[in-house]
């Protein structure tokens, strides 16, 4: 091991003198002059044994009928995936995940950007406001979802307030109505993640030099044109990061669902993540659970890669 | 702006008001009006109650142990690994870096079911050790990615001076490099610590129904136990979020700075 790492390290570098190289090769690894590869071994072992091997195993499980226990395993082709898409609960969960992901990403980024633009100029109250908006993201998403379950309850604070201001007509069973449950989940998720988007956009805004704004106003650009033609293009890197992160959180929605609706009413808020858990660990249906996990992996990886590639290209074009 | 901030903070107001209500007032008074006889015994009840295996007190301890030990291992393994990747060059270094970057993009959820299948016969389900192993695996790619970016931006001068003084690789790392990594170590500790502390998905799968439960798992059991007894539920919610809330309020600037540093890095 040690001699190997030495020779690999030393060959590409021109040796100063044969004498020096000889003394070096006799030294033990811990006295090596370049950083020994041995340092990387624990981290690399961890990622291979705990991430790559299980992910490959999961990919293989998804094409078998294994129940997670018995020694009897048969290769069943794409049967599990057919079951996933023919079972209305899991098929709908895939659809819900996509809708939730996109609507949530759109709204949370608009809200986050607006908060950042408002806070960027506010100097005195900035720190306290920033803390208030960011706090929901720092706290347990499951725990805070229970507060919202109460707020949305039929006899809860939201309907109480609506009644008090004379809007009885708007009083609804927010989490009990299949058409309102998913929008309610999205409201909670926007509350939880808007601070994250805001922090990313604030960091982006801070990176824009003041002179550029001055130059734009000297050239006679109004605030709206300045925003579209100057600020937004320069925020491109922040937009990339924020969209990618919020999309990953949106597609993986789990805590909020279990805290608010438990997937109901009548499975209207089941997502892939809640179904992976339910199918695998509640119904012990390992084959379907892994197939769903593979679908989830494919969707997230596909969108993450598309988003990174498209947004990077746009970033480069805008910055030219 | 302040109105929007009040709207954002209103769930916390309701949370505190309800957690202090004596049981008879929960359904008879408005949820928006604080009780005239605030009742702190809700917290005592919740802290000592035993919901499905673990009370809030033992859950708090489990969360602390699992989060702290996992983060320490992640910092040690991750910084060592990133130091080697960043300071060496060539194909192996690039390949290893790519290995960790791909590990960030590919969701960890797929690896969870096979790990569960392997952990079960090994007796690692429902244990601290099992959870710590899981977290080190789930978060290692992100940690190595953050450290590698930071080490690459560090000048080599100090390390070279240390070598001239005859320090070996381990001493150079521990006495020179690791202290210089402090800003990114802070970011790693905050990001990884927050992720582990707040996680519910992995914890529910590996700790659900066992004696060892982290706070989110225990809270989930509590809500089932105290259906609609919102004063108890909310006292439990406050116990679960208070440690992070206090930490956030005290170290707000470093917290947000570290976070922004992590996402920009």
Give a structural overview.
The complex is a heterodimer of chains A (320) and B (265). Chain A has 320 residues and is mostly helical. Chain A has a single domain (88-319), classed as Orthogonal Bundle (MetI-like fold), CATH 1.10.3720. Chain A has helices at 2-10, 18-26, 41-61, 79-86, 88-121, 126-138, 141-152, 157-164, 178-206, 210-218, 223-234, 236-251, 255-260, 272-282, 286-319. Chain A is globular and about 75 Å long. The relative contact order of chain A is 0.12. In chain B, helix 3 packs parallel to helix 6 and helix 6 packs antiparallel against helix 9. Chain B has 13 helices and no strands. The two termini of chain B are 30 Å apart. Chain B has a single domain (52-264), classed as Orthogonal Bundle (MetI-like fold). The longest helix of chain B has 32 residues, at 56-87. Chain B is elongated, with a radius of gyration of 22 Å. In chain B, 76% of the residues lie in helices and 0% in strands. With 265 residues, chain B is mostly helical. The interface between A and B is large, with 93 and 89 residues.
Low-confidence stretches of chain B: none
The value of Rg of chain A in angstroms is 27 Å
| CATH classification class of chain B | Mainly Alpha
* N- to C-terminal distance of chain B: 30 Å
* Helix count from the secondary structure assignment of chain A: 15
What's this model, at a glance?
The complex is a heterodimer of chains A (320) and B (265). With 320 residues, chain A is an all-alpha fold. Chain A has helices spanning 2-10, 18-26, 41-61, 79-86, 88-121, 126-138, 141-152, 157-164, 178-206, 210-218, 223-234, 236-251, 255-260, 272-282, 286-319.
């Amino acid at each position: 091991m040690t001699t190997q790492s030495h020779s690999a390290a030393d060959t590409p570098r021109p040796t100063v003198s044969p004498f020096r190289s000889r003394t070096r090769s006799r030294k033990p690894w811990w006295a090596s002059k370049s950083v020994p590869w041995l340092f990387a071994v624990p981290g690399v072992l961890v990622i291979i044994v705990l991430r790559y091997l299980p992910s490959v195993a999961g990919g293989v499980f998804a094409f078998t009928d294994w129940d997670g226990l018995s020694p009897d395993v048969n290769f069943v082709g794409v049967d599990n995936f057919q079951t996933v898409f023919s079972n209305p609960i899991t098929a709908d969960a895939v659809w819900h995940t996509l809708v939730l992901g996109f609507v949530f990403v759109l709204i949370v980024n608009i809200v986050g950007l607006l908060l950042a633009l408002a806070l960027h100029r506010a100097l005195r109250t900035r720190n306290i406001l920033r803390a208030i908006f960011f706090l929901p993201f720092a706290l347990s998403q499951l725990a805070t979802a229970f507060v919202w379950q109460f707020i949305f309850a039929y006899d809860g604070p939201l309907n109480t307030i609506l009644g008090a201001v004379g809007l009885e007509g708007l009083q609804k069973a927010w989490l009990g109505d299949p058409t309102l449950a998913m929008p309610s989940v999205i409201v909670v998720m926007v509350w939880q993640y808007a601070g994250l988007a805001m922090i990313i956009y604030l960091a982006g805004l801070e990176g824009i030099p003041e002179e550029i704004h001055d130059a734009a106003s000297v050239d006679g650009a109004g605030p709206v044109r300045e925003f579209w033609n100057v600020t937004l293009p320069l925020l491109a890197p922040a937009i990339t990061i924020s969209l990618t992160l919020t999309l990953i959180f949106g597609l993986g929605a789990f805590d909020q669902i279990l805290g608010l609706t438990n997937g109901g009413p009548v499975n209207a808020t089941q997502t892939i993540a809640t179904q992976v858990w339910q199918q695998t660990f509640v119904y012990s249906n390992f084959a379907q659970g892994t197939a769903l996990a593979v679908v989830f992996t494919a969707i997230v990886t596909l969108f993450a890669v598309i988003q990174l590639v498209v947004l990077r290209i746009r970033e480069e074009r805008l910055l030219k | 702006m302040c109105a929007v901030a009040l709207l954002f903070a209103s769930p916390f107001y309701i949370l505190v008001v309800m957690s202090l209500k004596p049981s008879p007032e929960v359904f008879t008074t408005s949820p928006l009006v604080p009780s005239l006889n605030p009742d702190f015994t809700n917290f005592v009840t919740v802290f000592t109650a035993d919901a499905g295996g673990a009370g809030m007190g033992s859950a708090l301890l489990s969360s602390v142990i699992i989060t702290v030990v996992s983060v320490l291992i992640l910092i040690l393994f991750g910084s060592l690994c990133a130091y080697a990747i960043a300071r060496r060059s060539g194909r192996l270094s690039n390949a290893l870096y790519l290995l960790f970057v791909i590990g960030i993009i590919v969701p960890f959820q797929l690896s969870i079911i096979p790990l569960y299948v392997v952990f079960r016969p090994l007796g690692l389900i429902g244990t601290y050790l099992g959870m710590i192993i899981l977290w080190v695996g789930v978060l290692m790619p992100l940690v190595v990615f953050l450290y590698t970016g930071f080490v690459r931006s560090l000048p080599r001068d100090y390390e070279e001076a240390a070598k001239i003084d005859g320090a070996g690789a381990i001493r150079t790392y521990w006495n020179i490099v690791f202290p210089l990594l402090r800003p990114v170590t802070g970011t790693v500790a905050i990001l990884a610590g927050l992720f582990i502390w707040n996680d519910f998905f992995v914890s529910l799968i590996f700790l659900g129904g066992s004696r060892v439960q982290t706070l989110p798992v225990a809270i989930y059991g509590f809500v089932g136990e105290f259906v609609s007894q919102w004063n108890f539920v909310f006292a439990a919610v406050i116990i679960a979020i208070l440690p992070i809330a206090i930490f956030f309020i005290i170290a707000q600037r470093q917290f947000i700075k570290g976070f922004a540093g992590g996402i920009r890095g």
